[in-house]
Hints:
By secondary structure, this protein is of the alpha+beta class. It has a single domain, classed as SH3 type barrels, CATH 2.30.30.140. The protein is 29% helix and 39% strand. Strands 3-2-1-4-5 form a five-stranded antiparallel β-sheet. Helix 1 packs across helix 2 (75-86). The mean pLDDT is 86.
Amino acid sequence: MCLGIPGEVIEFLPDQPDLARVDVSGVRRVINVGLLSDDPPRPGEWVLIHVGFALSKIDEHEAAAAMQFLEGIGQAYEDELAALAESRIE
């Protein structure tokens, strides 16, 4: 199962404006935010992430609700976090 998971934007990579470091439940990874070029996120904002790409900006309340749901589904969420922890886009 592939899920969209919320992540908080921490920073952008120097000289690579389409790449941002995000925090997802304590896992920090670089993702591509190029799909949001019309309204790019800023550090501290939340995005919905799928396979290393930010699909949309979401607010903190949406992120919390999504995290609560994802934690409730158990193993699929744990598998998604494990895949995120192993991935690298840098």
